Amino acid sequence: MKLKVLGPHGGELPGCKSTCFLVDDRMAIDAGALTSMLELPALAKVDDILLTHSHFDHIKDLPMMSDVVVGRRDKPVVIHSNSECIETLQKNLFNNVLWPDFTKIPTKKNPVFKLRSFRAGSNIKVGPYSVKSVLVSHPVESCGYVISDGEVSMAISGDTGPTEKFWKVLNKVENLKLVLVECSFPNQLQALADISGHFTPQTLEKELEKFDRRGAEVLLYHLKPAFVAQLKKEVRHLPVHVSELGEEFDF
Ligand SMILES: [Zn+2]
Ligand SMILES: [Zn+2]
Predict the structure, then answer these.
(1) Least C-beta-crowded within 10 Å: which of 28, 80, 83, 133?
(2) Which pLDDT value is given to residue 80?
(3) What's the pLDDT at 26?
């Protein structure tokens, strides 16, 4: 599997991109930096987008993408997420008010986007990948995922505060090579992290004690742009790597 970091942050500033990863050049995880990081030919090759949840920093490039790939593909891009997220996109984004309904444009039969929902916690198939969704801890329905290609697996936590289930699932995954884990706010903003469902370095440290790593690499993402330097200092003693914009991993 190949993973490219298109957006390692939980927001935007110059040099920071919202959450977005590209798997094997064909499946995106979250859509915070699709159009700002991919040229049109690469963008048009993305067949599936797996969304962790509906928050803006994770979906913001969907409308921009619809606008540039329309007429460039012969089949819809399939957007996969839990039912709450899919309902939110249809009701509040592709609603012909905030943005045209690209689930019916240019035609109902062959639109730019197809929305596909699943029950949080279920196993789904996305292209060649088996994906296990795990409900995590966030103010809206947010999912972590384990993604397997039949040989190796990777996982992503989604936006979450302290959780048990995600680690329990991970501890049973064979050939788990890489885990993306969110870490949003510095320790001094613990109260904010708690009410908004996010990790700080100190809660992350406790979470990692629940994880039987067996050699898997832990990459941090979703650092809030205003606190990147401080967060890097606060995680320096932990056995983790802070993912960087444009980084690629082969495993
Ligand atoms: Zn977020
Ligand atoms: Zn969120």
Answers:
(1) 83
(2) 98
(3) 98
